[in-house]
Amino acid sequence: MFTIGCHLSSSKGYAHMAEEAASIGANTFQFFTRNPRGARAKAIDPADVEAFHERAQEAGITTILAHAPYTLNPAAAKPETRQFALDTLADDLIRMENTPHQLYNMHPGSHVGQGAEVGVDLIADALDQVLRPEQTTTLLLETMAGKGTEVGATFQEIADIISRVTLSDKVGVCLDTCHIWDGGYDIVGDLDGVVEEFDRVIGLDRLRAIHINDSKNPLAAHKDRHEVIGGGHIGLEALAAVTAHPALRHLPFFLETPHEDVQEYGEEIRALTAAREELL
């Protein structure tokens, strides 16, 4: 089964997101746990959660992906910034247990001039502080584009973080096609090679989700600017090949392309589905 969805607004609750996903032909979705540029989180409504489980079952939605706010930086040099990240991560992981056995994605962080090695250590330490043995949620580290002092722009940096986490069985990876393309991984000309490198360095068993996005920039630009499917330098054919790859096709795919109208995501889902079917 092709599991594909997009990023939806969580302002109206879980049940509404499930209904909205189903309306555009999606069978999964991603959402922010709270204001992506701030700290506020909407209170969990038990009735909404119960309604979500009913709607999700009707729509065939078994997997959802929560996204941490962009403001988190567990690799920060400032103690108050790092503490904010720790507090938010811990709270989000508790909130995630309202929808057990799901995925929670985060940008690893930026070392802000301290050096990548320090950044890796700080991120791993943060995960050690917030991960709990009893949690059912898998925390995903997202592959990054290498903009500024971002940590996680190489598969090796992601692997280094995971190797230092005590509860590493609670940690996986979300691969972003725009990010790795901008980071220098040629998924257009050598998709097999990129997949093989990921497996060698991190392990495909760690890969739990894929952000499927085109890029406004050429290979290795390190800029991180998403484009609509087929409108950028990666292209529809290459992105469809990602969704059809034997080592990846079983994963959930999430669109983060720039659209104002959710129905436009439905058009992309249909285009990717058709292009994927031609390759299978």
Give a short synopsis of this structure.
By secondary structure, the chain is an alpha/beta fold. It has nine helices and ten strands. Strands 1-2-3-4-5-6-7-10 form an eight-stranded parallel barrel.
Features:
280 residues; alpha/beta; eight-stranded parallel beta barrel; two-stranded antiparallel ribbon; 9 helices; 15% strand
Write the topology of this structure.
Blueprint: E1 3-7, H1 14-23, E2 28-32, H2 46-59, E3 64-67, H3 79-96, E4 103-106, H4 116-130, E5 138-142, H5 155-163, E6 171-176, H6 177-182, H7 191-201, E7 207-211, E8 214-215, E9 226-227, H8 236-244, E10 252-255, H9 262-279
Parallel strand pairs: 1-2, 1-10, 2-3, 3-4, 4-5, 5-6, 6-7, 7-10
Antiparallel strand pairs: 8-9
- Using the alpha-carbon principal axes, give the shape: globular
Largest sheet at a glance?
8 strands, parallel, barrel
Q: Which class best fits the helix and strand makeup?
A: alpha/beta
The stretches of 5 or more residues where confidence is low (pLDDT under 50) are none
Strand content: 15-25%
- Assign a percent range to the helix content: 25-40%
User: Order of strands in the sheet with the most strands?
Assistant: 1-2-3-4-5-6-7-10
Number of helices: 9
Which whole number gives the mean pLDDT? 97
Global Rg: 18 Å
In N-to-C order, the SSE pattern is EHEHEHEHEHEHHEEEHEH
> Would you report the number of β strands?
10
Gap between N and C termini: 12 Å
